[in-house]
Design a protein that fits this description.
The chain is mainly β and 196 residues long. A hairpin with a 5-residue loop joins strand 19 and strand 20. It contains one helix and 20 strands. The chain has two domains: 93 residues, left handed beta-beta-3-solenoid (Ribbon); 89 residues, Lipocalin (Beta Barrel), CATH 2.40.128.
Length: 196
């Protein structure tokens, strides 16, 4: 039994090491094949973690932007009918606090005005906002960035190992790309914002 568990752990580690960071985009059904549009003319290949609206990332396998589903990938891992990596009968997920959600773009391009799209409250409720209703301003600096809430500035350093920026109080900015980021609070609240 221990050998089986060690093998499963090794497979999981191997797949995680081959994956890249989470992308912001949308799944598009193209005549029965599912394409993941990042909005950046970027056809995904191989394993990629995709952040879903429940705040969990799931791992998908792509060839030229098209998602594999209901089959084994070339490296011998199974993806279900939704394209999600399945290990030992369970869909593998990453929470926002787990390693692996690194940035995908140069931090220097991450600046300007961003509109809050969703707020996932720690009590489980979700609030959605119209574009431009709530605005956050990102002001880059040499060793991090300032987050302007309108009347208040908060400093984030870029020295965190797994996340793009971290504040003294533990709040995290996880940059998905220059047009999209998550603001993650220690109490579990998550704010999703996009450039407008």
């Amino acid at each position: 039994m221990k050998k089986v568990l060690k093998l499963m752990a090794a497979v999981a580690v191997a797949v995680c090491m081959m994956t890249t960071a989470s992308f912001a985009g949308e799944f598009i059904n193209n005549g029965g094949s599912v394409y993941y549009n990042t909005g950046e003319n970027n056809n995904l290949n191989g394993w990629h973690w995709i952040m879903r609206t429940d705040g969990l990332a799931r791992c998908y396998y792509f060839t030229d932007g098209y998602m594999w589903y209901n089959q084994y990938t070339p490296d011998g891992n199974y993806v279900n009918g939704s394209g999600e990596w399945v290990l030992n009968g369970q869909v593998v997920t990453k929470s926002v606090w787990e390693a692996g959600m690194e940035i995908e773009t140069n931090w220097n391009n991450f600046s300007g005005n961003y509109s809050i799209c969703y707020i996932y409250r720690s009590n489980g409720t979700v609030e959605q906002y119209a574009p431009g209703a709530l605005v956050l301003k990102i002001i880059p600096d040499t060793y991090g960035c300032w987050l302007d809430y309108g009347n208040e500035l908060q400093w984030f350093t870029s020295e965190d190992q797994y996340y793009s920026f971290v504040a003294d109080d533990g709040t995290l900015i996880d940059v998905i790309n220059e047009n999209y980021f998550r603001l993650i609070y220690p109490d579990g609240e998550i704010i999703y914002a996009s450039k407008f």
